[in-house]
Amino acid sequence: MKKPELLAPAGSLEKLKIAFIYGADAVFIGGKNFSLRARASNFDIPEIKKACDFAHDLGKKVYVTTNIIPHNDNLEGLVEYLQALETSGVDAIICASPIIIDSAKQNTNLEIHISTQVSSTNYESVNFWAQEGATRVVLARELSKHEISELRKNTNCDIEVFIHGGMCVSYSGRCTLSNNMTDRDANRGGCAHSCRWNYDLYEGETKLNKSIPFSMSSKDLQTVKQISGLIDIGVDSLKIEGRMKSLHYIATVVNTYRKLIDDICDDSEIDLPKYLLEIKKAENRLTSHGFMEGMTTVNEQLYNMRSENPSQEFIAFVHDYDEENFIATIEQRNYFVPGDEVEVFSPNFEPLKFRIDEIVDLENNILDAARHPKQMLKVFIPFKVSKYDIIRKIKH
Amino acid sequence: MKIAVTPFNTESISILSAAGADIFIIGNEQYANRLVHSFSMVEITEINNLIKSLNKEIYITINLIAHNEDLPKVIEFLHFVMELNVDGIIFGDLGVYNLAKNLKMTTLLIYNPETLNTNYYDSVFWEKKGIKGITISKEITLKEINEISQKTNINVSIIGHGHLNMFHSRRPLISNFFKHTHDKDESYSENRDFKLIEEIRDEAYPIFQDSHGTHIFRDKALESYKEINFLENILDVFIIDGIFKDTDYLVETIKNYLEILNSENHEEKAKIISDKYKLDHDSGFLYKKTVYVKY
């Protein structure tokens, strides 16, 4: 059984480190240019270099998205930018436009991955890109496990499949709702997510939706139950979406799939309810398996803007631990008070619960609450914790 | 510049031809999206003969987004089209390109992925592949259309007139919604009288569901009356898409464009005609740049 790569998003260097520490084999990041998700906090070249150095020290990889569909006005500096990515040590670019693909081929040795923005839905289109020199194609999110399996049998190209996160309800790259409704170009990083807005549906003059607004919105993708099948099929890379998601989201989602993939590949017993419960702890919309089991039904749609509150709240990061006195130095991320029931979430062990006792600052002042983001605090934790472990409050 | 149209039936072809159409775009719903009419294989064969007898051109559109299971039937259809000796094949999925290439039909291909031909290099790239032409993307300015057309020797076309689509989902979004609400339980497949109105906007967007999924269109039809004289010099083919309209509308539209092109004072003529349609037509993105800024 071939173990697939687990690929995670990172909107910042801190998130990139967390993604790796919690088990990602590779991350994808956006640069300052030629990348969609214009609002995601993107990396400049020195930061990309740092990201690559950090990753390579761990034997891991960094991919940079250069996935816009550029107009003539957007091409300035393309070659220099691609060369700078190569010099920084980037392992591959994820791209969709022939000018970016050919510029990379002609001016660099960058590995080329084809973005989902071109909606590759069949093995012939994947083979087209392989003939163009791409080493990997990110498949369209509209494919079932069965279709992915057929595709796998008919191509030698590496294939990457989305396993978790937000989903375009349209075929990616073919949607211009945002362009038409807000003048913002969805294929150049301006998507306004108009597909998630509320509509009325009319037939002639008759309004057809009576109880709730017409909605096209998709639930987020979650494929805990499908991972084993995707590994059997021989998918090369399993991708988590969400360059704009929080640290806690990244840590929770990455670690859940990490443990699941390891358990499957080690032939360990798979406790699916445990993984399903764990992944729910990341903040989220309602989730579904998307197209994995075939054509989407009413269960894959999000109506009435229903959402699910995370069952846990991220309150602090561990910086240090004094083993002699059982005192952890932690960095505050959300409000908490003495008496809160919390758990430590760590890449090193199963979640462990404890209760917050006294909270003191670094000058040893006793606090009635942890109020200030990023404030360094000391708390008693009755077991050994490590840097980058996450403390989260259990909500009841 | 030739004028291409999407006929609604076999009978209209002679009428449209007489009105001035040069190219007829025909398709079958198994292999194409958003057709004004799905023609059977028998009809396509008849139409092909008719069009050839009129000395006009026929393009077959195979613009489906293909899934694996579609590929064998696309190959079969390509064989059928090969026998017809048509003038062009429109495709939007690179899988279709690969299949046509295997059958040595590359020189017939016209690439229209609708949103992806956005800069000069797209035409350069496809010229190197030896295809017949490209259709430039919809949400592009007149200035950009001009720049792209200058850089290539292959045929360049735009959909210059008609209701342009702006969304295609594989999902059956209308039937799923009604399964959830039970507001309506009749058949909605292919019903083209549905419209969407967003809660804080007035525009009514046509929407329909078919075997390829759900499609949403712009509220107003695009027209290029004031631009047609300029476009005549830079385009090989100007496409008029009749979706949501009828044969009379297509005839009227062709005549309008030809009247402007043949007019001594074409600017004035174009203004008069454009004004006549301004309630439900607009110039789309011909003069409107979409935003590309970081927030």
Walkthrough of the structure:
The complex is a heterodimer of chains A (396) and B (295). With 396 residues, chain A is α/β, with parallel strands linked by helices. Chain A has helices at residues 13-21, 45-57, 78-88, 98-107, 123-131, 145-153, 177-182, 227-233, 247-265, 272-279, and strands at residues 5-9, 26-30, 61-66, 92-95, 112-114, 136-138, 158-165, 199-203, 206-207, 220-222, 237-240, 284-285, 287-288, 307-308, 312-322, 327-332, 341-345, 352-355, 359-361, 366-367, 376-380, 390-394. In chain A, a hairpin with a 4-residue loop joins β15 (312-322) and β16 (327-332). Chain B has helices at 12-19, 41-53, 71-84, 94-102, 120-128, 142-150, 173-181, 228-234, 247-262, 266-276; strands spanning 2-5, 23-26, 57-62, 88-91, 109-111, 133-135, 155-161, 165-169, 194-198, 204-210, 213-217, 221-222, 237-240, 281-282. The model of chain B has no long low-confidence stretch (mean pLDDT 95). In chain B, the strands form three sheets. Chain B has an eight-stranded parallel beta barrel, surrounded by six helices. Chain B has a four-stranded antiparallel beta sheet with strand order 8-11-10-9, with helices on one face. A two-stranded parallel ribbon of chain B has the order 12-14. β8 of chain A pairs antiparallel with β9 of chain B, so a sheet runs across the interface.
